[in-house]
Specification:
With about 150 residues, the protein is an all-alpha fold. The protein has 7 helices and no strands. Helix 1 runs antiparallel to helix 5 and helix 6 runs parallel beside helix 7. The N and C termini lie far apart (about 70 Å).
Length: about 150
């Protein structure tokens, strides 16, 4: 008599297989996924093996980012729900999005940011809030200013 895996175990296995498959599609090592903002190599290894514990919401969100998945994809895989669809059509990220992401990572490195740090980012002079790519551009400019200040000291 064989025992059926629990729903939770089935979800862990389903997520682990999808994470490994996607990582391989992207040609990424586990270290590269971690470097892209994903979970640690140790956590990723456990995930890919379908091992407990159940990943936290934060870990699932990190997987979405690091594997270029639509937000909530990892959570949907874990829960056995239908996968979310991109609103932009074929790809979630445009070439401009990817270029800005690269520039942001480089600006963070230039500013010496090695861990999550928070600082308030001033609103533009007209007082409107920036969103999407405009917000990323503003953050890059801000970080470059921090790097310039640090280098001039």
């Amino acid at each position: 008599m064989t025992t059926e895996p629990s729903d939770e175990q089935a979800g862990l296995v389903r997520l682990g297989e999808a994470v490994r498959r996607r990582r391989m599609e992207l040609g990424l090592s586990q270290r590269a996924v971690a470097d892209r903002g994903g979970p640690s190599v140790r956590s990723l290894n456990k995930l890919e093996q379908g091992e407990p514990p159940r990943p936290t919401g934060s870990t699932l969100s990190k997987l979405d980012v690091a594997l270029d998945w639509i937000p909530r994809t990892a959570a949907s895989l874990l829960a056995g729900l239908p996968l979310p669809h991109a609103e932009r059509g074929a790809g979630l990220y445009t070439a401009e999005d990817l270029e800005l992401h690269t520039q942001l990572v480089q600006a963070l490195a230039r500013a010496g940011v090695s861990a999550a740090q928070t600082r308030s980012l001033a609103l533009p002079p007209d007082g409107r809030r920036t969103t999407g790519n405009d917000a990323i551009r503003a953050l890059i400019a801000y970080l470059d200013g921090l790097a310039a200040e640090r280098d001039s000291d």
